[in-house]
Amino acid sequence: MQMTNFEELKVLLKSTPKKIAILPHKNPDGDAIGSTLAMFHYLRKLGHFCNVVAPNDFPKFLKWMPSAKDIVIADYKPKVAEAIIHQADLIFILDFNTVKRIDDLGAWVERSTSPKILIDHHREPDTFDYMYSDIEMPATCQMVYNFIEAMNDLDKIDKEIAECIYTGIMTDTGGFRFRNTSANTHRIVAELIDKGVEVDKVTSYVNDSQTQGRLKLLALTLNNLTFLSEYRTAFMYLTREDLLKNGFQKGDTEGFVNYGLSVDNYIFSIIFIEDTQHNFIKISLRSKGDFDVNEFSRKHFNGGGHMNAAGGRSDLNMEETITYLQSILPDYKDQLTNIII
User: Fold this and answer.
1) How far is CA 109 from the centre of its chain?
2) 1 in a domain, yes or no?
3) Is residue 208 over pLDDT 90?
4) Most Cβ neighbours (<10 Å): which of 97, 270, 328, 332?
5) Is 299 exposed, middle or buried (CB count within 10 Å of its CB: 0-12, 13-18, 19+)?
6) Is 236 in contact with 222 (CB distance < 8 Å)?
C-alpha cells in the first residue's frame, strides 16, 4: 500500500482515543456507505469516538447495513453534522476526491484545522494531510481492507466489517463484472466470506429490495432505450415527470445504465435523468473495453470517474442534451467501432 505519511498516521490511530468524523460523497452508493461504515466499526475497535456524516440520504437497499441507522444525514441535521466536523480530531474522506463533492460539508471540512485522511480510487484527488489514492482499485472498500491490513489489524475484521466491505466491492464492481476486478479482489472476498459474510443474504438485500416505483421506472427507461448501432452506443432517459409520477426514491434508478451494455456488440451506454428539484440533468456513463468514459465525461459533461464508469451533468434541457450527444458521437466513431471486447 502506498500512502502519504502512513507511519505517522498509524501512530496517531494507535495512540489516545480521538473524535473522528468519517465522510462519504453526496448521493452515497454502496461503496461510499460500505467503506465509511467499515471504517467506523474498525476505528471504534481501536477505541476512537466515531461518527459517519453523509451530505444527504442514501438508498433504502443499503439501510440494512450494520450501524447504517447511526449515520448522520447533514440534509436532515445540519447543526449536528457541522458540530461533529468542527469537533473532530481527525477527518476521514472516503470514496471521493474533492470537497466539492460534499456540498456544505466541504466548507466545514476546509475550515477545520484537524488532519484529513483521504482513501479513494478516483482520478486527480485534492491534496490532504494523509493520502491513500489508487485509481487502479475497483472499490474504496478494497482499499479499506488494505488499510486495515497495513495497520496489522486483519484480526479485527468481524462479520459486520466484512459485510460492509463486501457490499462496497460487490456494488462498485457491478457484481464482480468490471475489468478492474482483480485476482486480489477475489482473494479478499474469499477472506470476507470466511469472516461470516452470507453472500446470498447480502445480494438479496442489495438487489431484491425492489419498490413498485423502481420497476415502473425501469419499464419507462427500457421503453425510452435508443440504439445507435453505427456507434455501438445506447442511451436512455427519464424526465422529472417520469420520476415524480412513479414515486421516485433515492436509489431507484441504480444500475439502469448497465442495460445498454447487455446488448451484444454494444460498448457504450448512457442514461440521462432530469433532477427532481433543480434544472439540470444527471448523467451516468458506462463502457466496455478501452473506451474511456471518464475522459468523455470530463470533456463533454462536466464530470468524471473511472475508465468504464463515470458520471456527469448537463445544464441543457433533455432534448438539447440528447441532440448534443448525437452531435459529438461522430468524433468517436472510429474509436467505438474498432474496440475489441
Assistant:
1) 20
2) no
3) no
4) 270
5) middle
6) yes
